[in-house]
Amino acid sequence: MNDAEAFRVSLVQMRAGQKGKIVEIDGGFGLAQKLDALGIRTGREITKVSGQLMRGPVLLQHNNTQAAVGFGMASRIFVEVHGEGRT
Amino acid sequence: MKILLMGNPNVGKSVVFNRVTGTSVIASNYPGTTVEFTKGSVKLDNKLVELIDVPGTYTLEPTCRAEQIAVEMLDEHADGDIVINVVESTNLERSLNLTLQLLKRKIPTVIALNFWDETKHKGILIDDRKLEQILGVPCVPICAVTGEGVKQLVERVKEAKPSEYDYEDEERWHEVGKIVDKVQNITHRHHTWLERLGDASVRPLTGIPIAAVVMFLAFKVIRFIGEGLIGYVSEPAFEKLWMPVVMKLSAVMGSGGFLHDLVIGQLIDGEIDFGQSFGLLTTGLFVPIGAVLPYVFAFYVVLSLLEDLGFIPRLAVMVDTLMHKLGLHGFAISLRPEEKNLLPPLYCPLQYHVPHYRPW
Questions:
Q1: pTM for this structure?
Q2: What residues contact B240, with CB distance under 8 A and at least 6 apart?
Q3: In angstroms, what is the C-alpha Rg of chain A?
Q4: Alpha carbon of B287: minimum distance to chain A alpha carbons (Å)
Q5: B203:A16 CB<8 A
Q6: pLDDT by residue (tens digit) across B63-84?
């Protein structure tokens, strides 16, 4: 898992089961704050649990907590995926 | 002096509240809003102290109306008030975010580590003494559902004091991480079948069939309970107990005439038919109480069970896209919309009392 292999995708583009580290939240103060309250912030290691059909919410997990994030918000959360990143 | 009960949504605040308060609990709306909170009293050193169950919040930087009210209630505190911060031991990291924000307010605080018994099942070890040392406020492990530790919690309320703990706001999550590292030890554990089921229920391929099966079963069970109640309870009650009363009344009113038709309705073959007489005291009572209420009851029993199982929030995720087409949020299907985006574990502690739900 070295940096050369890591690359940046949005939460929407990640595959279910993939792990990564949040590197950027592309939004204003309100979005950052809302996500922060759910424990989603830059630097966090997360796993994408699932996505839904037709632009549905994305479910992600960090430690013991699972949180669902709407498609719009998920597309603004960027993650550095570890290892061989096939999307 | 009053005590504010604060914590994230769904950490068992209400259960703690029910455990420590006696009778005379009042549920009211925060002035000018529909956000509801409950008030009760607790006996401390033979004095009655007001206890307020503040709406759950993840943060003191409010992101919604209920959170805003939680913060306002905290802002309104007077000298001598105490905060009991209910924390989810199985999710220490998430809970401590709010805890650190609370401690920064320098209000005397006691921390209740709820779901203490659950930590063992989950392979989580928490050093509560160390946490107490670090934060500088009493930390009491409790299990609100069974009532363990609640007495100690009440006893230690008088030890509540403002925390000396200091940190920079931008560093808060970092601080939370450091504290968790020091006081928590997670032993490796295999996924339980419930966790697998929980994950399967939110993947489209498996989740849609699971949702279909669960909803079909829910429908069947609601009909079974509802029809059972009507067939064995409400119909016999109306036929055997209420029928003689209204028949007598009908006879008194002369078995006909305008007033009789209004109150008793039409007699069918000289008998009252609760389904077809259409009088105020016959069909008018039977339809809402005898026929509809049993179904409403059955519906809430099933919905509460699904909610406590943790299935409803997962269903909310599954149907979110569909609900958005109707102009609603996926969580509109939940009885507890304050749950917001966080999914509880799929597991049934049956920690919520059914009367807690308010359908309106």
A1: 0.70
A2: none
A3: 12
A4: 41
A5: yes
A6: 777 788 888 888 887 777 899 9
